[in-house]
Amino acid sequence: MGSDNNPTWKEIKVNAERATVIFHFDKGEFNTQYYPIVKFRGKKLEWQHKGGYLVCKDPAWLIVEEQLYHFEKGIDGKKTSTLSQQKPNHGGAQV
């Protein structure tokens, strides 16, 4: 990112292949946790803690580590960004 918070100074690779999003819902005793898993070329794309950000929400386009990803089925970025704020909890109830 440039000093003016404008990312256009850096070249970004545009991926021709589309990524896929699988939405997971884990129902617990007290709540339901939900989160997306993004896959690209058959592998899980780690994007939530690598500074990934949406540049377009409808349809969603995601930039992670200087690569631009778009999705099969025209995923709505509002759903992805809302779900990305949730963290999976696999160990008991939250109080």
Question: Would you kindly provide a written description of the structure presented here, covering whatever features stand out?
Answer:
By secondary structure, the chain is mainly beta. The chain is built from one helix and seven strands, in the order βββββββα. It has one helix at 77-84; strands spanning 13-14, 20-27, 32-40, 43-44, 53-57, 60-64, 67-70. The longest helix is centred in the last third of the chain and has 8 residues, at 77-84. It is globular and about 50 Å long. The N and C termini lie far apart (38 Å). Residues 82-95 have low confidence and may be disordered.
Question: Would you kindly provide a brief summary of this structure?
Answer:
The protein has one helix spanning 77-84; strands spanning 13-14, 20-27, 32-40, 43-44, 53-57, 60-64, 67-70. It has 95 residues and is mostly beta strands.
Strand order of the largest sheet: 1-7-6-5
Give the oligomer, counting copies of the same chain as homo and different chains as hetero.
Answer: single chain
Query: What characterizes the major β-sheet?
Result: 4 strands, mixed
Give the integer mean of the pLDDT values: 76
Rg estimate, integer Å: 15 Å
Give the structural class.
Answer: mainly beta
Residue runs with pLDDT of under 50 for 5 or more positions: 82-95
Q: Please report the distance between the alpha carbons of the first and last residues.
A: 38 Å
How large is the count of helical segments?
1
Shape assignment: globular
Order of helices and strands: EEEEEEEH
Secondary structure tally: strands: 7
Beta-strand percent range = 35-45%
Residues in helices, as a percent range: under 10%
